[in-house]
Amino acid sequence: MSRIVVTGIGVVTALGDSVAANRDALKKGQCGISFLELFPSRYAETLRFGEVKISNEQLKQKFKVRDKGVTRTTLLAMHAFEEALQNSGLTNEQLTSYDTALIGANTVGGMCLTDELYHDANNDFEGSEYISSYDIGSVNIYMQKHYGIKGIGNTINTACSSSANAIMYGARLIQHGLAKRAIVGGSDSLAKFTINGFNSLQILSSEICRPFDASRQGLNLGEGAAYLVLEKQEDAVGKKVYAVLSGYCNASDAFHPSSLSDAGDGPYLAMSGAIQEAGLQSHQINFINAHGTATVNNDEVESKAMLRLFKDVPPFASTKSNTGHTLGGSGAIEAVYSILSIEHQELYPSLHFETAIESTGLKPLLNYVQQPVHHVMSNSFGFGGNCSSLIFSKA
Amino acid sequence: MIYVHKIASVTPQKELLPASIDEVNESVNNVLKVVEPKYEGVPLSILRRMGKAVRMGVGAALPLINTLEFPLNGIVIGTANGGMEDCIKFLNQVIEFEEGTLTPTNFVQSTPNAIAAQLSLLSANNGYNITHVNRGLAFENALLDVWMLLKENKTHTYLLGGVEEISSYNYNIDYLADWFKKDEVSNKAMFASETEGTLSGEGSAMFIVNAFPEKAIAKIDALHLMHTDDVTEIERQLQHFFNQHLEDGQSIDVLVSGENGDIRSRHFFEASERLLKDATIVRFKHLTGDFATASALALTITCQLIQSNVLPDHMVKIDRHKKNINKVLIYNQHKGIQHSFILVSKPAA
């Protein structure tokens, strides 16, 4: 087995439109959650969101996209993809060769255009320009064509852990010799579909979300994207290596379609499986980027699973308190944040926390600290019990 | 190497392979809808709450899982859209009630991972669980995932599946995007059609797979997936695929062709036939219609052909009078840009 290393990262969220801007905001403990400015919704002034304050027109201009039917989910994905590509130093020849894989993930696809989809699906007129852009696969399929990527293309959907699984899948393609390099990640944009879906489940907070706080009321939806370039260590000689992807595990909670089991079986199995895959002991994990959605169910169950696994729970935080829950983008976005902690030997604080959950007593990290960081775990748990954990290590 | 041990499917036909053309169910308004069985392995109270895609997927897979003699290590599903009927029901609520108070049932069922998730829940399976959704290569990526899993864990057993439903959503959308015929064509005459578009279909195909050859019904030797609209590229890669995976003296007995009656895609299938001058050419989409994961049903049909060694006449396009069906190539393409080759063989007795 080769070591899989990260040679490029790119990210766009409500915190900023680059890796540097995101890191700066994380260090300062900034929160990107606000009322809506760009996205029209009945809830624009009553609920809060992690909205990326760049319009579709600006995004299209930036990437010179003249094709019709390119949705915001795709544009945000391209934003992160291009940054990752640029700082990986991949040549165009490498990008378009048969051994470069593109593995994406999202949960809404082109359904961010809820109103257009309504008309197209109900066949009440000729069909809009977005007619072929609604499905989840449309993002990756467009990017594969746009960038001329000839290797294996795939899109994964495991709800909120989608892009963590895209990272795993890309790494495995390389391990099996099915790709020499894989560009992996995910994106999601705000959509009436998901806003109303999560609202109907009564898990959206009207206040700014408070991960792991006893009085947490639910999550804030966000949008964004992140991509990583993965290569074998031996193929990355002379390149900047951000981190090693040392472990990963996908496990099912097998309990309920939209909530986690009391004992947190899925989260426990995903975290312990990733530690085992990395050949580590649990005490070697320096930091956990928790799933930490701030729903009543997730944070308590995730805490219990951490207490089950770790004799002493390492410092942990939820960056969803900065970005909101970016759904299909979150696994990759939080992977980038975990990698930044390793690259810069620093940990970013969780925001809006006051009082620990009574049954667990766990407090997230509340201050920015510089310290040796060797191994960071990133958790992503999705509806349907789809739990995945990734471990990034210092090269 | 993947060995297939059990198969189950839900298709638009009463029997997976009708013996004669008279027994083939006919399309209605260019659509072939599944004939759903009673799904006796699934409790009625649970079935009633499921949308069609979840019902077809869970209904076909659960009896396979429940009668397994060895533990199941994970569930790997390919579906381009999952439960889109639920998706559109929820979407309609969002618009019609102007984002008012909505019920979450349709929302939860609308996510494509609902089939794999429900299966893990109903079989209490804590293993690997994933849903691949890359449109016309969703099932192929599920197959590739299982191929890697079985290399990583040689003693494991997985459920592999492909599911797609026809919903008002994908039918209307793909119709407006010109993927279905505008003129009425029967499935029994679709391959002679000279117009653009195919017939809409749906189905569910489930497989129990592992790396053990004993008692297997079929062996999947190799898989290749491509993203291109260039027919010469298909020919080049198919030749390369043969060079890589066929040993000296080996040849393909049967090509299971994904020909779909759309004149815009005919040249792709003709190209594959040009490289298989000694193989019997069979077609299946008059039985299933066309959809993003039709290749999953192509694999089910291939397993059945290998097991029975019988080719129904209505499937045969060119008969090269093969005595035995030992090696089969499945070639399928979706919307002219997503293509796959799957090489399947009869396991050594």
How are the SSEs placed, and which strands pair?
The complex is a heterodimer of chains A (395) and B (349).
Chain A: E1 4-12, H1 19-27, H2 56-62, H3 72-88, H4 92-95, E2 100-105, H5 114-121, H6 137-147, E3 153-156, H7 162-175, E4 181-188, H8 192-200, E5 224-232, E6 243-252, H9 265-277, E7 287-289, H10 296-309, E8 316-317, H11 320-323, H12 330-344, E9 346-347, E10 369-370, E11 375-382, E12 386-393
Helix pairs in contact in A: 3-6, 7-12, 9-10
Chain B: E1 2-10, H1 44-48, H2 52-66, E2 74-78, H3 84-96, H4 105-110, H5 114-122, E3 128-132, H6 138-152, E4 157-164, H7 168-176, E5 203-210, E6 218-227, H8 231-245, E7 254-257, H9 266-274, E8 280-283, H10 285-288, H11 294-308, E9 316-318, E10 327-334, E11 338-345
Helix pairs in contact in B: 2-5, 8-9
Question: What attributes characterize this protein structure?
Answer:
heterodimer, A: 395 residues, alpha/beta, Peroxisomal Thiolase, Chain A, domain 1, 2 domains, 10-stranded mixed sheet, 12 strands, 32% helix, 18% strand, B: 349 residues, 11-stranded mixed sheet, 11 helices, 11 strands, 33% helix
